[in-house]
Structures are given as C-alpha cells and as structure tokens.
Amino acid sequence: MFRTIFLFVVLGLGLFVGSQYSGQQGYVLISFADKTIEMSVTTLVIFIIAALAALFFLEFILKRAASMSYNTWNWFSVRKLRRSRRYTNEGIIKLLEGDFKHAEKKVMRWANHHDKPLLCYLIAAEAAFSQGDENKRQQYLEKASEQDDSTLAVGLTKAKQDIRAKNCELAFDTLTTLSGQFPNNTLILDLLKGVYIELKLWQPLIDIIPKLARDKVLTKQEADSYLIRAHSGLLEDVAQQQGSEGLVAHWDRLTKKLKSDPTLITAFAKQLIARKADYEALGVIKSVLKKNHIEELYALLPEMNLSDRHPVSQFLLSAVKKDPNNAAAHSALGQLYIRDQNWTEAQKHLEQALEKRSNVSDYAYLADALEHQNLNQAARDVSRKALTLVK
Hints:
Elements: H1 2-20, E1 28-32, E2 35-39, H2 41-97, H3 100-109, H4 117-130, H5 134-145, H6 151-164, H7 168-181, H8 186-199, H9 202-214, H10 220-253, H11 256-259, H12 262-274, H13 278-289, H14 295-300, H15 310-322, H16 327-339, H17 343-356, H18 360-372, H19 376-390
Antiparallel strand pairs: 1-2
InterPro entries: Heme_biosyn_assoc_TPR_pro, HemY_N, TPR-like_helical_dom_sf, TPR_rpt
TPR repeats: 327-360
Keywords: Cell inner membrane, Cell membrane, Membrane, Porphyrin biosynthesis, TPR repeat, Transmembrane, Transmembrane helix
C-alpha cells in the first residue's frame, strides 16, 4: 500500500513539474566506458517511475509465491498435527480401556508431529509399564525427559509406576530429588507420604504431615491418624536402637497432647514390655488407667512377665469394684486367674466380661477354664459361640 502511494506521489510530482516547465525539458547525458545515453529530463523521470513500478511488481510476485509455498507447507504441517492429536486421543482412550498394546501403537505412530510429544511418550511409558515391558518403559521415559519442561511430569510418572511395582526405594530416590526442585508441590509430598510409610521412615513422615494438612491434602482427622502411626513406629525404632532407657527419654520429650493419646500410650507400654521393662510399663499403665479407660492397656496387664502378679490382681479387683461393667478389667482378671490355675474365678470374671461384650479371645479362655473343671459340654457350647464370631 505504501509503495503504491509512493508511486502516485512521484507520478504527481512529475506531472506537476512537467506542466510547470513544459517546453523546457532540459538535457540529461549518461556516459560510461565508450557508451553514452542522451535523454530529456522528462524521459528520465518516466523511466525511473517505470523502473520503480517494475521493481515493486516483482517484489509482489516473489512474496506471493513465497506465501503460497508457506501456506502449502503449513497446510501439510497442520494436517500432520491434527492426525497426531487424533491418534493420541485414541491412544488415551485405549489406555483407559486397558488395551495397552494398541494404546502404545496409537500414541507413538505420529508422536514426532505432535505439538506436545512429551504427552505421547508418557502415555507410551504407561502402556509399556502396564504390559510389563521394562525396557520400553525406560526408553519412553528417556525420550520424554529430552523434551522441554519435562522434569516434573517425567519424575512423577516414574515414581508412581515404581510405587505400583513396589519399588519404593527407587520411588524414594526420584521423589526426594523432585522435592528439592519443587518443594511446594503437594503431589510430591503426598506420594512421599506413602513411600515413607512403606519404608518405615517415620521422622520424615512426621515432618511433612503438617504441610499436607495446611494444603488441605489431608483432613485434620487423617493428619492426626498419620502422626500417631508415625510416632508409634518411631517409638519402636527408638526402643530397638536405644533400649528402654532411650525409649523413656524419647517419650518424655513428646508433647503433652501426644502423651495423652491412647494408641500412643499403648504403643509405648508394648515397647517397654518388649524390652523386658515390665515394671516400668506397669507404672505407666496404672497411672493412665486411674484417669482414663483404655481397653488396650487392660489387655496388656496379663501379658506382663512379673515376679509378683498380686499388685496387678489387686489393681484390677479395685477397677471392677469401682465399675462392675468394666469388661476389659474382668477379662484381664480372668486371664490372670487362668495363669494361677484358679479356674473358678477365671470362669466367673470371663463370663462377666462376655455379658458386657462379645470377644473371641475371652470365649477361648472361658472354654479352657470350663474344660479344666470337666465341664466339657459347656466348653463345647462356648467354643461354638466363638466360631460364630470368627465367621
């Protein structure tokens, strides 16, 4: 457009000048080597305008030809892109349908022409993994990692597949590297949560739970449950590595809220018993049961290896006197009387426990007490009741 206006302006100026100086055309001489060209000024102006017009026209023709070539090439490229996208979409559907072999073929057929080949390689890696072809899976993941901005997507895909294959150590390495590069990615932390549990890495699990709760990945109830599980596991690790003294020291460092949790108290007492610190465990259990009713702690009392079980029996008798409906205390008493071979008292307390709630173990203990009193028919009846609970 600009060139056309320019030509018209030049032509107009030429006409204006020509009209002003009509009859006075002037004289132009061009000489080079042994040749000379003579013409009037008017002829020179017309020649220049014609030359410019020819030049502009030639430029137009060349641009039009280039544009047609580009459009033709672009048409083929767009056609290939559309076909690649169509095959990729079909491959995703095949993957969801469980047809992994055809899913792999579909997405890889035109992957080189896709505008996001990373997607094709990741889908192919998933299809290969689902077919159990580890070599192809690694090849596709390597090709995917060569694409731009692929680190996170490739890492997460690999980690998820390793977790499903129970290769938690490999998933741990991948996710640990990713967490350093993407510290605020909650999906990485959520996957690490599962890996930490599988590998029993309790302290790292404790460290990430608050962030998962803040980011709404876990509800408060779920976060509390994971924390209790992690702290229970950590108690076991400390007990194995540092013994009962280290376990008690670790317990003392816990928060008041944690030390009041029934599950954690039970775990602490179990670890003391496992480390042969039964009297220390007894002191913990008695102090807790005086304030709270925790059935799991009552169940630990008969398991203790004590030189004198009389204090335990007296404590339990005091508990059932205070609360005759305390089934857990009656059950524990019954088990202690079985150890002392006091079958009558054992029968009495076990029957009282079963009146309050059904329990397979109590039925088995009661059947044993009845057999030792030669009450065989009653023992068989009790055993049948226990079998109905198992079913």
